[in-house]
């Protein structure tokens, strides 16, 4: 049995996808079942590592602003 971590399994699953297929994977994962969240997290990590500090700050600002405008669900 091969011991393959989740991160590498996700990367291996999409690494040969075309740009169109990659966009479909992302679009199909957003707002879908929570089991797709780890995959989106891995893809985000790959993007994050390639961003400049300025781009990371812009992304964090956008996320922060979005979350500030989102009301938390009552539990």
Strand % is under 5%
Q: Tally the helices: what do you get?
A: 4
DSSP E strands, number: 0
Class computed from helices, strands and strand pairing: mainly alpha
Order of H and E elements: HHHH
Assign a percent range to the helix content: 55-70%
What low-confidence regions span 5 or more consecutive residues with pLDDT below 50?
none
Shape: globular
Q: Please identify the oligomeric state.
A: single chain
Mean pLDDT: 89
Query: What Rg, in angstroms, do the CA atoms define?
Result: 15 Å
The profile of the biggest β sheet is: none
Structural commentary:
It contains 4 helices and no strands. It is an all-alpha fold and 75 residues long. The longest helix is centred in the C-terminal third of the chain and has 16 residues, at 53-68. It is globular. The mean pLDDT is 89.
Characteristics:
mainly alpha, 75 residues, 4 helices
Question: Could you give a short description of this structure?
Answer:
This protein has helices at residues 6-14, 19-29, 37-50, 53-68.
Write the layout of secondary structure elements.
Blueprint: H1 6-14, H2 19-29, H3 37-50, H4 53-68
